[in-house]
Amino acid sequence: SEMCIRDSINAEYGGTTQCSMALVPRSGKEFSSKKYWDNFFELRQDSFEWYGEYEQMKSVWTSEVELDDKVLVVGCGNSEASGHMYDHGFHNLTNIDFVESVVQEMRHLNASREGMTWEVMDMTATSFQDREFHVVFDKGAMDALFASDSEEHTAAADRMIAEVKRVSSKYFCVTLAQQHIVDKMVESFCVEGWELSIHQLDPESFSSGSPLSPFVFVAKRLGQDEPQPLNSVTFHPAGAESDILEEAQVVDTVIGLQNLSSTRHKLAGKLSVDDMVRIELFDSGSNSDMPRYVLTVADLGREGAAGSCGVFIVPQGKQQEWQFVSDEGIRQLVDQISMTRLVVVAMQPSHSYDCLLYTSDAADEEDSVDLGGRRIIKKKKKKK
Asked: Which member of 69, 144, 336, 371 lies 3.0 to 4.6 Å from 31 by CB, making a disulfide possible if both were Cys?
């Protein structure tokens, strides 16, 4: 999980300058360190939106929050999110951070936004009154505080969640949704008196430089007359209809989408010679828990024929042969075919397939063999 965050930060910075590399934490523990954030804001003066711009989450925000709601922004840093919210009509904003220099800077930069306040405060132990706010807005603060599932970080996350529940009735949390974060959110808010919903922000709206895209977790305190969800979460996938997930399904669903995002990011660039990506494709119309296809993607390590990408379909009955299941065997296949990128497709024996003429040994008796779009025409022997 620590590496996922570091990869995202490296991708955003580009990792090209001494200053940018100094900003990347050496370990997950540094994310919750005041000393690290003091140094971060001293070295990086401009705003840093590694969790996306306000516009990318505005539709979720405006559907959950009223213009006159009193909002507490925790771990505000030098993000421009509060300023954008204010300019869109959310004027009752209180921002807190434990780094005094960044609070002073943001107070100065936003002096013209009347009514918006900035305070130096620890978000795990605030001085606010019970239920003083309608909403707590968190854009990456929980991820920074709960950077790993260590005992120390877990205790800090529990203190923060306790404060969120004490001072407000709704928690709007923008997060990279690593597994321990998802587990903690489900554990804390799939409880009596609260309901939890999860929104996947549109991955296409984020920079292709980041391997992960954020989610929004919205936890709401229920009124006495509101029905209590029974061990379930409302999930809103990007570009699709919402669904009700059981608690046990939440982690697999969210982590699966993050793995997909990470894989897409990886495949958008060049794979190292010793690196391969395996993708399992399942048949939504089948009851089988086995994938229908297993794809292995490997790069040649040099330019192949016109920067080409090829698809090799493993002949039926040979899926378990060394050539097609071992990394070394597939690497030899990539070298032999000599395309820049090769996708090796194995069809699993637990499924049935139509049109196997060119993907089985039966092709030996035919006039041609199709190797993933490359049809090899066999010369017929002349009769004597």
From this structure: 144
Nearest 10 degrees: Cα torsion 26, 28, 33, 37: 60
Residue 46 CA to residue 68 CA, distance in Å, equals 29
DSSP annotation of 122 reads -
> Is the CB of residue 371 less than 8 Å from the CB of residue 343?
no
Angstrom distance (rounded) from CA 279 to CA 296: 6
| Tokens at 230, concatenated | 């029974």
Write the DSSP symbol of residue 175. Answer: E
* Helix segments in the chain, DSSP class H: 2-13, 18-23, 34-43, 54-64, 81-87, 100-109, 141-145, 151-167, 179-189, 247-267, 322-325, 327-337
What is the C-alpha separation between 278 and 297, in angstroms, rounded?
6
Enter the tokens of residue 198.
């999860």
Half-sphere exposure in the Cβ direction for 44 (13 Å, CA): 21
What are the contacts of 87-91 at 24+ separation with CB within 8 A? 87/113, 88/54, 88/58, 88/62, 90/65, 91/67, 91/115, 91/116
Write the Ramachandran bin of 255: left for phi over 0, alpha for psi from -120 to 50, otherwise beta: alpha
- The pLDDT tens digits for 78-121 are 899 999 999 999 999 999 999 899 999 999 999 999 999 999 99
For residue 117 the two structure tokens come to 């306040």
Task: Report the C-alpha gap between 186 and 197 in whole angstroms.
Answer: 10
Residues paired with 278 in a beta bridge:
296
Backbone angles phi and psi of 59, in degrees to 5: -65, -35
pTM above 0.85, yes or no: no
Q: Checking DSSP bridges between strand 232-236 and strand 243-246, what pairing results, if any? A: antiparallel
Mind listing the pLDDT tens digit for each residue in 180-223?
A: 999 999 999 999 999 999 999 988 787 655 677 889 999 999 99
